[in-house]
Amino acid sequence: MSRLPPGTRLLAVASLVAGAAIIAGILVTGSPAQQRLWRLDESRKADLETLQLATRDYWRAHGALPQSLAVVAAQPGMSLPLHDPVSDLPYGYRVIDATRFELCATFATDSARHGGHRGAPPDAWVHPRGSHCFRRATRDPVGLP
């Protein structure tokens, strides 16, 4: 029976521990591909938040909601993210009534599974995977249920 050199067992155990740590890290934080999808969804939510603020500013300035996001973007000095960063499709917008509107996007992930939108009030930007619309109001900083 041959004996292993003294450091071989320690090296084997260290390798197993390192491998387990890497696997645990991927399980906790998601794969690099999943992380990329989450970052893209964070970008979409940030775009919608920017559009929400611009829409509210337009309402304050004009006393009415714009008929389209293009109307808001056409104002002097305005630069708005009107399109999805991946598909290049326009974000959805719909006037509900005099003070309420919807902003829509298609998401790659379910935000409830990875913590929602950083810095926003709880549930303000929670979305499922796929197409989703957020109902917002001109005076409500969080939005409507």
Sequence-ordered SSE layout with sheet pairings:
Blueprint: H1 6-29, H2 32-62, H3 69-73, E1 92-95, E2 100-107, E3 130-137
Antiparallel strand pairs: 1-2, 2-3
Write a brief structural summary.
The chain is an alpha+beta fold and 145 residues long.
Structural write-up:
The protein is α+β, with helices and mostly antiparallel strands. Helix content is 41%, strand content 14%. The chain is built from three helices and three strands. It has helices at residues 6-29, 32-62, 69-73; strands at residues 92-95, 100-107, 130-137. Strands 1-2-3 form a three-stranded antiparallel sheet, covered by helices on one side. The longest helix has 31 residues, at 32-62. It is rod-shaped and about 85 Å long. The termini are far apart. The model has no long low-confidence stretch (mean pLDDT 83).
